[in-house]
Write a structure and sequence with these properties.
alpha+beta; five-stranded antiparallel sheet; 8 helices
Length: 362
């Protein structure tokens, strides 16, 4: 396997700058997920690593080799596409071996690699079937197997799970992670789904409008988002954002409440400075549903809507001029517009600079 290094990578289409100077170090054997909304540039970066897009400026290295102008076939990469891209007229066996055969790999070596991939991916019973005779999950495993048999230095995945139903997507996600650990593979995985990013990644790269917004472990990105964009993108449902200002002492004032925060947790500006308060749904605790936070502030609000999810409910209520979402554990039925008492966990809130939108966490 190999490292992948991007230095000041820029991609320009005519007058449109799609990628605006990206620096990224992907260590050998790590699972890196590029995540962000549609149009943020994640697939463009992946395609530049693959050699399917030219690089307008900057340097791209795989291992110690500069590969800016190297053809895809010589980069030591394998790519798994969203559409699987299998040959419909070929059997699973032939799909797995076709790329090796046209590359001149000896027949005995093709058989060895194909058998190993089929065993690891559970494809041995389906080797004589064609793609049309397989389920979506089985076709995806064939696409992964075709990438595996090339024994690449780097695996590239371009939203490979988006065509699967929810249950199969979860199952395949686990299989991909297990496979990566077995192989010790370097993986670059593109998705717009932040749940996929959180569950698969060793490191997450959050992209926003062609720039890197934050790089970190899943826990770092979730617990310490660098700015409003990352805070709003990572997490489901999204973080609640409420206009506020700095109070006297370590206190945030919002919608008539004074919410105490831990001393020394934030670099707070002077009292009266406008800020944006960020609170995740799980940190707005309905009375009687979850542990009552010691540090915090209480308020009463009418529940506009309750979304029942089985083991929990999402409660939508007004907090001042803002509709917020709270997470209720062990849910119960609620009357329309029923008043509930909530407590905001002051030890878990986030505070952002209103002007530059950066986090004020120390």
């Amino acid at each position: 396997m190999a490292t992948v290094t991007l230095r000041d990578i820029v991609k320009i289409y005519g007058e449109f700058v799609a990628i605006k100077g990206v620096d990224l170090d992907i260590e050998d054997g790590t699972f890196v997920v590029l995540v962000g909304p549609s149009g943020c540039g994640k697939s463009t970066i992946l395609r530049m690593i693959a050699g399917l897009e030219t690089i307008s400026h900057g340097e791209l290295r795989i291992g110690d080799k500069l590969v800016n102008d190297l053809p895809s076939r010589d980069r030591g990469i394998s790519m798994v596409f969203q559409s699987y891209a299998l040959y419909p007229h070929m059997s699973v066996k032939d799909n797995l071996g076709f790329g090796l055969r046209i590359s001149g790999v000896p027949k005995t070596e093709i058989e060895r690699r194909r058998a190993e991939a089929a065993t690891m991916l559970g494809l041995s019973p389906y080797m004589d079937r064609r793609p049309s005779q397989l389920s979506g999950g089985q076709r995806q495993r064939v696409a992964i197997g075709r990438a595996m048999v090339r024994e690449p230095q780097v695996f590239l995945f371009d939203e490979p799970l988006s065509n699967l139903d929810a249950k199969l997507r979860n199952q395949t996600r686990i299989e991909i992670k297990k496979l990566q650990r077995q192989l010790g593979a370097t993986v670059v995985f593109v998705t717009h789904d932040q749940v996929e990013a959180m569950t698969l990644a060793d490191r997450i790269v959050v992209l926003d409008d062609g720039r890197v917004a934050q790089i970190g472990t899943p826990l770092e990105v979730f617990e310490r988002p660098a700015n409003l964009f990352v805070a709003g993108f990572m997490g489901s449902p999204s973080m609640n954002f409420i206009a506020g200002e700095i109070g006297a002492g370590p206190v945030i004032k919002a919608a008539g409440l004074e919410i105490p925060v831990p001393p020394g947790r934030f670099n707070l500006p002077a009292a009266g400075t406008p800020v944006v308060l960020g609170v995740r749904p799980e940190d707005i605790v309905p009375e009687g549903h979850g542990t009552r936070p010691e540090l915090g502030a209480d308020f009463i609000a009418a529940v506009n809507f309750a979304e029942m999810l089985g083991n929990e409910s999402l409660l939508f209520a007004d907090f001042g001029d803002t509709e917020i979402v709270a997470r209720m554990q062990h849910p119960r039925a609620l009357e329309p517009n029923q008043n509930l008492k909530f407590r905001i966990d002051g030890a878990r809130v986030h505070v952002f600079d209103k002007q530059n939108q950066n986090s004020l966490l120390r």
